Amino acid sequence: MGTAVAPGATELAIETTALTKRFGRQRAVDAVDLAVPRGAVFGFLGPNGSGKTTTIRVLLGLASATEGGARVLGQEVPRGLREVLPRVGALVEGPAFYPFLSGTANLERLDTANRYAPSATRTERVHRALERVGLSHAAGKRVRAFSLGMKQRLGIAGALLSPRDLLVLDEPTNGLDPQGTREVRSLVRSLAAEGATVFVSSHLLAEVEQMCTHVAVMSAGSLVAQGSLAELRRSGGAARVRVRTPDGAAAAAELARLGLDPEPAGDAVLARFGGATGDATPGPAPETIVVALVAAGVRVRGFAVEEPTLEERFVALTGEGFDVAQ
Ligand SMILES: Nc1ncnc2c1ncn2[C@@H]1O[C@H](COP(=O)(O)OP(=O)(O)OP(=O)(O)O)[C@@H](O)[C@H]1O
């Protein structure tokens, strides 16, 4: 049936059309149009409660949409799920394990439940998955003795038991220490390098920025931005210059004369390229600005051109701050 989709549609690993999920009167997911290109590491970003988990649950058939549609690996959801789920590895809302069984025994049970997984190669598969997430040393321990981070990694190992075209990871670094976070990040990158599409939700902007090629931003159930990281950075408005100087007033006057829009910032003066509205009018080149400042007698201690950060961009879009701490 995979060939029944239009060729263009298969370029997307996940596609939703006006996807809506209501709980009573609340629109947890409101007319969301997601387009996740194949091969992307796609960060699904948004503050707590913005609708990420609900979207993921609908994509995996764990909840039904109120309106709108979704396709996963070219198949309509939920109709095509039976066919598509063996190709999808998922980690959603802290996986459930048997606490009195070891990590290895838990993964073996999971693998047994997959009717496409040959039993002859089970031990090897489980061993490799544990190795992949750095849990080999703890494989024999009972899961009740695992830390939250270890359970999280065991969940990812479960998603990796079979080769997958798509991995859906809901907040995979929740509860991980910095070392565990780094490991998951590099794991995600290596999975993508092997050709899988990775769809990963997070409320941590810094994390998404470090491991993703694409981002979608949710705010109160709506998708407020979507695209490659490079595209989103470009749409972030004008860059600015930061001039560190003891001659703030003179610097501001000269920057204003050049058509920039200076504002004092401690021992520096900031000025946006393209004027106060951040429009596309090209401003003077940075080197022209330095020459003009020096010619005007401004003592320049430091000069930097700063791109708007993604955080500034997303805070502007969602009206909320992101937790950027690791
Ligand atoms: N089963 C449910 N019944 C009622 N309301 C729900 C249900 N599941 C989610 N919601 C509500 O839908 C909204 C979106 O929740 P969701 O879990 O999708 O957000 P999220 O972005 O994943 O947040 P988090 O990072 O906290 O998991 C929230 O207001 C939540 O309370």
Automatic annotation (TrEMBL):
Descriptive protein name: ABC-2 type transport system ATP-binding protein
Keyword terms of this UniProt record: ATP-binding, Nucleotide-binding, Transport
Xref: PANTHER family: ABC TRANSPORTER, ATP-BINDING PROTEIN
Stretches assigned to the ABC transporter domain: 14-245
Lineage: Bacteria, Bacillati, Actinomycetota, Actinomycetes, Micrococcales
Pfam family, one: ABC_tran
GO-annotated molecular function: ATP binding; ATP hydrolysis activity
Family: Belongs to the ABC transporter superfamily.
Organism of provenance: Georgenia muralis
Keyword Transmembrane helix included in the entry's annotation: no
InterPro entries given in the database record: AAA+_ATPase, ABC_transporter-like_ATP-bd, ABC_transporter-like_CS, P-loop_NTPase
